[in-house]
Each structure stands twice: as structure tokens, then as C-alpha cells.
Specification:
The chain has twelve helices and 14 strands. With 372 residues, the protein is an alpha/beta fold. It has two domains: 113 residues, Aspartate Aminotransferase, domain 1; 243 residues, Aspartate Aminotransferase, domain 2. It has a seven-stranded mixed β-sheet with strand order 2-10-9-8-5-3-4, sandwiched between helices. The chain has a three-stranded antiparallel β-sheet with strand order 11-14-13, covered by helices on one side. Strand 6 and strand 7 form a beta hairpin. The longest helix has 21 residues. The two termini are 21 Å apart. The relative contact order is 0.17. It binds pyridoxal-5'-phosphate (PLP). The site of pyridoxal-5'-phosphate (PLP) has 14 residues, from helix 3.
């Protein structure tokens, strides 16, 4: 085991991510009471920047709803807030986070049986069309954008088109997608998208959000409230009045505000390009080292690559030896836990950081292969 020294680490896990010094400094802004006008201004600024970043040109049709809590809070709030009485959800499940959608919906008996796929497969929009035709009680379809389990991009645009054409509501968990992957929310009539501050937007963890079609939220305000704390309608109504129902994570919001300014300065398309370039460097070097990716290039995201464990070294050894050199990698999950590892390239990483990591990785691997 490596001892944690408290030294800065390069994080190659899919969030929390390395943040810029500018975002870190924002955490130490002067203390603020959440019932003061400065807090209302902060909330309004963040909500506006979210719309500018993710529904540019359609800001008037969407609203951004902020929640204190990790990405899961935003996802669960969407699922609990989207159904009129008697209606059901259909979950598209091809990974750990698709399964989590199903688990959350099942706790409240909101879902019909899910559409399950292998974790390395993209769901076929046609099967979703057939399921919706067979199930008139289904009012909403929920799926994950970037399935972080193996770094797979689901065909959200194609599925959203099917869902919208059949008069249903498309809900997307883009917790690990927004900021790192393209998503045409407004163009595809996606009704609810859950995101988080602490991944590709490069803020710190603790605040999440939902981008929602305004017309939908006006209807959903009158739906049954299945949770007090995770009622989207409650946050929407309060925030439209410049308020919040309970104490928000103010310092995290300061950092989020700064991270969104950085995102808008860089441009969402440029950030995606930067992530894509870092991912390409990682994939090229791994290929040269004979470390195989889990997914074909066509399915891979810009911000995470899953690789099969190289022969003769355990994940724990690889992780610990890299951590001793200042780099944190990420294990597989579920049934892939012992066979794969993951390298994310989200966050304020430079090309030099990525190159230094790859040199360290090569060093550890070759040292180990030499011993075998
Ligand atoms: C696709 C996806 N959804 C939801 C979550 C849950 O986010 P959090 O851990 O912030 O609650 C994650 C976390 O990695 C994720 O990757």
C-alpha cells in the first residue's frame, strides 16, 4: 500500500477531477448567507451560464435547476419528478449507471421491466420504439449518456428522436457527459438532463443540476411529489423566485460559478476537442504497449478509456505503483472489476500531465514485465 502524502495527485479517475487554481481560489470567497441577495445573484449567474453552455440559442425554452448533492441527487430527482399519476418509466440499462436508474425507479415502483444490454453494447433505438408501442403506460424513457462503466457513448440523439416522435419524455443522465461529450439537448427535445459540477465542468463535487424544458417543468410542478428533498418542482419554484428551499453548498457554488466561466471561455466544443486529444494520446501509447481497449473506437467517449488488465500484474499493484508516482487510476466495476481498469482524462489536465502519466505507466509495466 502507498501512504497518502497529501501531495497533489494527477487524477485519472472519472471525477472528482483536478481543478484549476482559479476554481480553487473561488472556494475561499468571503462567507455568505444563503438568504442574502448576493446568493440569489450567484444562483442566477450559474443557472444562466449552464443554459449558455448547454442549450445555446434556446435559453428561453430551458431552465437550469440546482441541487446540493452529488450527481446521483440530480438523477434521482429527475426520476421522482417526471411522471403523472398512473404513468411509468422505461429504463435503458447497459451499465452500472443504467442499473442505478433502474434501482432508483424500482424503489418507488415507477418502472416497467428495463431494456438490458451487455455493458459493451449500444442500445438499439428500434427496440425502444417497439417497447414504447407495446407499453402505452410508459410516459418517460431514461438512459445514460456516457456510461462511465466502460466509457461508452450511448446513441442518445437517435433514442431521443424515437422517444419524442412517440410523444414520450426523454430523460438523460449526463453526469459524466456534459462538458466532455457533445449533446444536442434542445435540437432533440430532451426534457430533463442531469449533470454535476465535479466532472467535465471541472468544479468541485457537491452540487448537481438538471437542465429542463420549461414547458415540461410547468406541467411537472403539478405532478405527485414523491420526495420532499428530491422534488425538482420544489427547487424549480424556489429558484424561479430567486430563492432556495434549503441551505445550498455555497462554497461549492462559488467554485462552480468560476468553473462555468472557464468552460464558457474555453468553449464547450474546444473542451471536448481537448479531452479527445488527451484520450487519443492515452489510446495510442496503450496500443504501443500492447494494452487492449475494451471498446471499439466507434463506441468510446472523449474522456474515459477502459482497458483490459495487462498480463502478469494485478490492478492493485498497478494502482499502487502509479499512485506512488503521483497518478490515480480507476478500477473496473461489477463483473468487470477484476478484468479491466479505467483511465479518465477529465479535468484541468495538461498535455504534459498526460505524457508524464504515460511515461510512468510504461515504466511500471516494463519493470513488471522484466521481472516476470
Ligand atoms: C453516468 C453517471 N451517472 C451518475 C453518477 C453518480 O454521480 P455521483 O457519484 O456524483 O453521485 C456517475 C458517477 O460517476 C456517473 O458516471
Amino acid at each position: 500500500m502507498t501512504a497518502f502524502s497529501g501531495e497533489a495527485m494527477i487524477l485519472l479517475n472519472p471525477g472528482p477531477v483536478n481543478i484549476s487554481e482559479r476554481v480553487r481560489r473561488a472556494l475561499t470567497r468571503p462567507d455568505l448567507c444563503h438568504r442574502e441577495p448576493e446568493c440569489a445573484e450567484l444562483l442566477a449567474r450559474i443557472r444562466h451560464k449552464l443554459l449558455q453552455a448547454f442549450v445555446p440559442g434556446h435559453e428561453a425554452e430551458y431552465t437550469a435547476i440546482l441541487l446540493t448533492g452529488s450527481g446521483t441527487a440530480a438523477v434521482e430527482a429527475c426520476l421522482l419528478s417526471c411522471l403523472p399519476p398512473g404513468k411509468r418509466l422505461l429504463i435503458v440499462n447497459n451499465g452500472v449507471y443504467g442499473q442505478r436508474l433502474m434501482d432508483m425507479a424500482s424503489l418507488q415502483r415507477l418502472a416497467i421491466p428495463d431494456l438490458k444490454y451487455e455493458w459493451t453494447c449500444r442500445p438499439d433505438p428500434e427496440t425502444i420504439r417497439v417497447a414504447l408501442t407495446q407499453h402505452p403506460e410508459v410516459q418517460a424513457v431514461a438512459l445514460v449518456h456516457h456510461e462511465t462503466t466502460v466509457g461508452l457513448i450511448n446513441p442518445v440523439h437517435e433514442i431521443a428522436e424515437v422517444v419524442d416522435n412517440l410523444g414520450r419524455v426523454c430523460i438523460v443522465d449526463s453526469v459524466s457527459g456534459l462538458g466532455g461529450e457533445p449533446l444536442d439537448i434542445a435540437g432533440r427535445h430532451i426534457y430533463l438532463v442531469a449533470g454535476t459540477a465535479g466532472k467535465c465542468i471541472q468544479g468541485v463535487p457537491g452540487v448537481s443540476f438538471v437542465l429542463a424544458r420549461k414547458g415540461f417543468m410547468e406541467r411537472a410542478r403539478h405532478y405527485q411529489r414523491r420526495s420532499w428533498y428530491l422534488s425538482l418542482a420544489r427547487y424549480y419554484e424556489a429558484q424561479e423566485q430567486g430563492s432556495v428551499p434549503c441551505t445550498p453548498a455555497i462554497q461549492v457554488l462559488f467554485a462552480f460559478d468560476e468553473a462555468l466561466t472557464e468552460l464558457l471561455e474555453e468553449g464547450v466544443a474546444n473542451r471536448i476537442k481537448r479531452y479527445g486529444q488527451a484520450a487519443a494520446l492515452i489510446r495510442e501509447r496503450m496500443q504501443a504497449l500492447g494494452v487492449r481497449p475494451v471498446l471499439p473506437a466507434s463506441h468510446q467517449s472523449h474522456s474515459l478509456t477502459a482497458f483490459y488488465m495487462p498480463e502478469g500484474i494485478s490492478y492493485q499493484t498497478l494502482h499502487d505503483q502509479l499512485k506512488a508516482r503521483g497518478f490515480v487510476i480507476y478500477a473496473g466495476q461489477g463483473h468487470l472489476e477484476s478484468t479491466i481498469f479505467r483511465i479518465a482524462n477529465m479535468g484541468a489536465l495538461t498535455e504534459n500531465d498526460v505524457a508524464a502519466f504515460l511515461d510512468a505507466f510504461q515504466d511500471v509495466l516494463e519493470h513488471h514485465r522484466g521481472q516476470a
